[in-house]
């Protein structure tokens, strides 16, 4: 049995980031950059107006009410531009090039036009007002995004704007998922005595999809040693990471541990001093990782968020693989006995956190409405209302 921290350390120490692959930017959301991206151009590429109004020489405006001669126009995309000289103003629009000679733009709401003259109703107008400098967002040749950055929609917009259409990201792991349990029914089958509907595979697959891993091979094995060995053998051959659900405790029909042993997978740890999820096993066969997740749905999902997801994020190149952790006051007092650290399904609401009803490991309904997990080490087993606790935010 290892502690929570030791389990996390061993996982990170035994997890390698996958090599880089070049992919179209349009497919990169959810991937992590494998190399710094250097901007091939300055952004903006030229001086731009940030307002619809008039481009002027700022020092011409000596008082509110100064009149300037209207001398041409610059609209977005225009190539041939007038030059702005002292005493003149050029009509200009948002995003349009600021003509040579102009040092500021006055928004049109602060002007009035009569007989070919523009009256400026503001004072002072400083140099650079309403003008976006060339390279103000990023200079040509500067690092736009660092290796390890998650490609988000914002990152896609940023890179597209500099005409970067392909990126070097870390490859995503191929995941194999083994579902065990003779009591499990597939979707649509009629409910029978002693049976339940299988839900862990879809739950884990949704978590993986949210982490940007769409392809998961799922196998099912009956509660039988040979069937479990064969299914795991194939999954280990064809994937980078294998997850197994159920069959990892001490019952007579729990075969996942024995099957991994028979396949020569080394155990890096078995059992974590935690509730739920105690019987978690983490092992390795060559460079393939195996997580045997306890079958209880809430145990399975806690282990997924706290251990599997960080491993997968490190494999994909994330430099911050664990759930974001914050300290928040607990709304209610909470006590527990026993020797295991606790992970509580929780909701962060209005600057505090509340633990939800239904903390048993077979209860998944509380997870369905949770947005966080509270982590309470044994040393903090008597928490008063308002006391700070460690909260891990779910990636929702
Ligand atoms: N004598 C002991 N018994 C148990 C111990 C122990 O230390 N000594 N540990 C308990 C703990 S803690 C957990 S957690 C479970 C883990 O058991 P397994 O990983 O072997 O899981 P199963 O027995 O196969 O299933 C447990 C539970 O979850 C349901 N289940 C399983 N798979 C699915 C699925 N795909 N979808 C939905 N539900 C699933 C299953 O029907 C069981 O109710 O062991 C305790 N026992
Ligand atoms: O660890 Mo089990 O998940 O307590 O029920």
TrEMBL record:
Entry cofactors: Mg(2+)
Q: Which residues form a coiled coil?
A: none
Q: Per the record, what are the reactions this protein catalyses?
A: adenylyl-molybdopterin + molybdate = Mo-molybdopterin + AMP + H(+)
| Xref: Pfam families | MoCF_biosynth, MoeA_C, MoeA_N
Report the EC number(s), separated by commas if there are several: 2.10.1.1
Record function comment: Catalyzes the insertion of molybdate into adenylated molybdopterin with the concomitant release of AMP.
Q: Which NCBIfam families match?
A: Glp_gephyrin, molyb_syn
User: What family is it from?
Assistant: Belongs to the MoeA family.
Q: What is this protein called?
A: Molybdopterin molybdenumtransferase
Please name the source species.
Dyadobacter jiangsuensis
